[in-house]
Amino acid sequence: MEIRAAVAVAAGKPLEIMTVNLDGPRAGEVLIEIKATGICHTDDFTLSGADPEGLFPAILGHEGAGVVVEVGPGVTSVKAGDHVIPLYTPECRQCPSCLSRKTNLCTAIRATQGRGLMPDGTSRFSLRGEKLHHYMGCSTFANFTVLPEIAVAKVNPDAPFDKICYIGCGVTTGVGAVLNTAKVEVGATAIVFGLGGIGLNVIQGLRLAGADMIIGVDLNPAKRGWGERFGMTHFVNPREVGAELVPYLVNLTKRGADTIGGADYTFDCTGNVTVMRQALEASHRGWGKSIVIGVAGAGQEIATRPFQLVTGRSWMGTAFGGARGRTDVPKIVEWYLAGKIEIDPMITHVLPLDDINKGFALMHSGESIRSVVVY
Ligand code: NAD
Ligand code: AHE
Ligand code: ZN
After folding, report:
1. pLDDT at position 242, please?
2. Can 92 be counted among the known catalytic residues?
3. What is the CATH classification number for the domain harbouring 311?
4. How many domains does the chain have?
């Protein structure tokens, strides 16, 4: 069938909106009409050429919501008409990783997903007979896509697509990093570095967990109001603090009889490896946990003095907020419908597919929190 897609033709080039071909679902696969998709910084990261797994030409996008149109042979868990959110972290419930109960990183189809292919090693997308790559197993910058059954979460049909698409990445990543990965407790202190589409969801996750002190750090002064809107208690602009950022934050987090300072939990939501080091070193001696959420480009490495770890800090990472997609994503949709978490105010811009490149420009300028494309 012919579909409309924004194609990443080469690294560093704007997406090109065109009609491409999509083959129907094979065994174990599902054809989905995508109704809305968010634009995440990770799409920009891959489009920029910094992603060591980046492949071109490809159909990017991994933060979608839509409706099942057709299912391939053997599919039992969803049917035509079901509302679904695509999962870049699938949940097969059978692989050693799923069975371990220690991780959400299902390994059933990760190898082919990383090569931009469906699990049978082929692509469903083509342009004039030439293969187009899938992206993160989702390719939501297209009005129709094909996904493996294990990579769709069936959700409440009352939920609006143009809001819950954000649960496909940003919301789940931020809130899940707090609840699933850090396991933040009531009364904790926390520092969030980077108050974009992910960091603000970390902040609302911290509010949900009952953290007492929530410090937001961002170079963009406009992010102060945004952070406060979702529960931030203090704002720090590194440009105003200079080279002394870590001691400044450590001092700010001293409470009561504690003369050492440092936050119980810190989160990097920038993808900047220097910030990742600052986040680790601003966590509390003896027990601080620092969670890396940001994604850094090929060749980038993190560093610190081993002493920082010897003295009891833990450096952790999280993908998709540690969420098991088919189990947890429907629950997060219910949290949204019940008003337990907010999404609407973070969606600052809604665009047609033809204007998708404007969404990337708004991200670069710091004007948007999330831009959502509606089909
Ligand atoms: P974004 O562009 O919306 O926000 C980034 C924020 O960081 C901006 O507010 C920016 O001003 C701020 N910032 C940049 N440099 C900074 C610095 N040196 N100090 C303080 N603040 C700084 O991006 P996003 O969509 O929120 O994504 C954030 C990161 O998370 C990206 O690296 C993205 O690829 C990654 N990500 C990871 C996962 C995961 O599963 N681990 C999921 C989604 C996104
Ligand atoms: N391809 C990159 C890695 C990118 C990455 O870490 N992606 C996160 C999700 S970011 C969503 O916005 C992820 O899920 N990681 C786990 C995984 O299996 O990819 C690189 O550096 O190679
Ligand atoms: Zn993302």
Report:
1. 79
2. yes
3. 3.40.50.720
4. 2
- DSSP-assigned beta bridge partners for residue 173: none
> What is d(CA 255, CA 54) in angstroms, rounded to the nearest whole number?
45
Are 218 and 237 in contact, with CB atoms under 8 Å apart? yes
Is 98 noted as a catalytic residue in this protein? yes
Determine, yes or no, domain membership for 310: yes
Same domain as 244, residue 96: no
Residue 27 is assigned to a structural domain of this protein = yes
Nearest CA to ligand 2 atom 15: 319
- Among 29, 63, 149, 281, the active-site one is 63
Cα–Cα distances (Å) from 181 to 104, 319, 329, in that order, read: 10, 9, 16
Q: Taking a C-beta distance cutoff of 8 angstroms, is the pair 152, 228 a contact? A: no
Task: Check pLDDT > 90 for residue 48.
Answer: yes
Instruction: Tell how far the Cα of 19 is from the centroid of ligand 1, in angstroms.
Output: 31
Ligand 1 near 50 CB (within 6 A): no
Can you tell me the mean pLDDT for 351-369?
A: 98
Q: Report yes or no on 333 lying in a domain.
A: no
What CA dihedral angle connects 168, 205, 342 and 143, to 10 degrees? -10
Ligand 1 test: best mutation among 53, 140, 198, 290, most atoms within 8 Å of CB?
198
pLDDT of 116-128, one tens digit each? 999 999 999 999 9
List for the chain the helix, strand, coil content (%; round to 5): 30, 25, 45
Cα(200) to centroid(ligand 1), Å: 10
Tokens of 232: 């931030």
Does pLDDT of 41 surpass 90?
Answer: yes
42 a catalytic residue: yes
Tell me if 327 is assigned to some domain: no
Band of the pLDDT at 243, cuts 50, 70, 90? confident
Is 145 annotated in the active site?
no
pLDDT tens sequence across 72-118: 999 999 999 999 999 999 999 999 999 999 999 999 999 999 999 99
Q: 279 and 298, same structural domain?
A: yes
Residue 162 and residue 188 in one domain = no
SS3 208: helix
- Cβ(39)–Cβ(360) under 8 Å? yes
Task: Based on the residue annotation, tell me whether 62 is a catalytic residue of this protein.
Answer: yes
Residue in 42, 172, 253, 266 annotated catalytic = 42
